[in-house]
Amino acid sequence: MVLLDGKKLAEKILGGLKDEIASARSELRLAAVVVGEDSVTKKFVAQKRKTAASVGIDVREYNFDAVISTNELRKRIAEIVHEKKNTGVIVQLPLPGHINTQYILNAVPPEKDADVLSARAVGNFAVGKSEIMPPVAGAIKAFFEEYQVDYRNKYAVIVGAGNLVGKPVALWLLNEKATFSIVRSSTESPVEFTRTADILISGTGKPNFITGDMVKSGVIMIDAGTSVDRQPTTHNPQPTTNNQQQSVIAGDVDFDSVAPKASYITPVPGGVGPVAVAVLLKNLVVLNKALSKFPPRH
Amino acid sequence: MVLLDGKKLAEKILGGLKDEIASARSELRLAAVVVGEDSVTKKFVAQKRKTAASVGIDVREYNFDAVISTNELRKRIAEIVHEKKNTGVIVQLPLPGHINTQYILNAVPPEKDADVLSARAVGNFAVGKSEIMPPVAGAIKAFFEEYQVDYRNKYAVIVGAGNLVGKPVALWLLNEKATFSIVRSSTESPVEFTRTADILISGTGKPNFITGDMVKSGVIMIDAGTSVDRQPTTHNPQPTTNNQQQSVIAGDVDFDSVAPKASYITPVPGGVGPVAVAVLLKNLVVLNKALSKFPPRH
Fold it and tell me: What is the dihedral of CA A43, A49, A50, A53, to 10 degrees?
């Protein structure tokens, strides 16, 4: 079993970026739109900020109250997007349930959409005319290239069809010469698919959803799930003295039972996550190059 | 076995359109861009023109020489698109090999893109924000609704990942709660997928590619393949007196061996084809309504 080392791969990608950014004429700034006060969301943004800083990219956070309306948020994002210094704009997901998420994402023009989530950026990507990839799909591709996984000639199964993992990965594989299946919460017997997969990519957000009995021997296991376990761990069932719950970022995979059967596996943390952040920052660099070549028409 | 009657379903869709168009204030005109002199392409356009005429939609054909350059064609399409009377614009595919097809398709703005092939229209569709569906996907959905096929709870296998069938159908099923697989020419053993499919959707353009031994008993067989058999038929191997070859539009399915095993099956001709044309015209009506509600900004 080979552990797919996301920290190391991220370092490699970031190392290349650092030089490129240092020699660039213009400054890069990523605007991060954050709605609400969720501590995990804040943690993710802090992580992006730290990584960005390490390569010379500034992250500017724009915070909004959780009760903001869709229309007000869209208006504010239009201003953020308009600000020239913001060379890229991301919206930290998920947004509160009352907000029309796709309408908000569509306010980011493709030339600043480093997350590839607006309809226009998704369209460019879907027809094979995008210079950048959605970060998680880009991260998985980077792993396959780094570890020489011939993914085009293997059977991939994608578990979950969400906006951040399943959907962009499906769009990517659709444009490659890959054979793949999509299974989701409505699928009657997911195990019939997962057990035959050469490559299993999971993005359900259900901790320990993928167990050893669901995979075949030799599987290439990509854990792109993100969920937050706010419960005290079973190892430490006593409430902590300051009454704070521990929040642990978990993947989809029951590592202990899957790893012994896998040929390759990404850990959580230290797998897809840091590479996706590196790809996001790389996207910002690529978009900025494209921007200086083809200034947007006004 | 139930034959999915495309002519009848198309009539039903067109019947609804006819009344709507008659009572509308503005006239609808579909501009059809045709490059080259292929007789089959001409036949398809003639079919669209005839069907459109039956509901009161005018089709204007714009013909270009097969040697036209990508840049020149793009410029000409920009003019066609700009013409107010053209309330919808389609580009008859395939284009000659030297032309950058997606660049040409992207010249059609989403509000006139009745075929849903430009990057922007595909993007709107992919994120679930399109009022219209790509014609073939829309046709398949119409069949499922008409014959009450509960496709969301069945396993679909899509054979082929082309721009007109496999890709749009995959995008559609991705946004529904459906479980599906994509197999393509690079897939090592397509039969392992096709034999387990509850719903089999084929769009490879290879006549008789799907044979009875490749499907399971009770399959719902959707033949969305289009190919042209220009050979004299085996039943009539003698050259005809006027030395013309017969050109027959063929699907992907070996009907004689698949039909006895199928619970539902679309014939070719008279299956997906006429319904896709009806959906295309319906799209034109829907887009025109959207257009009059939200005039595009200039």
Answer: 180
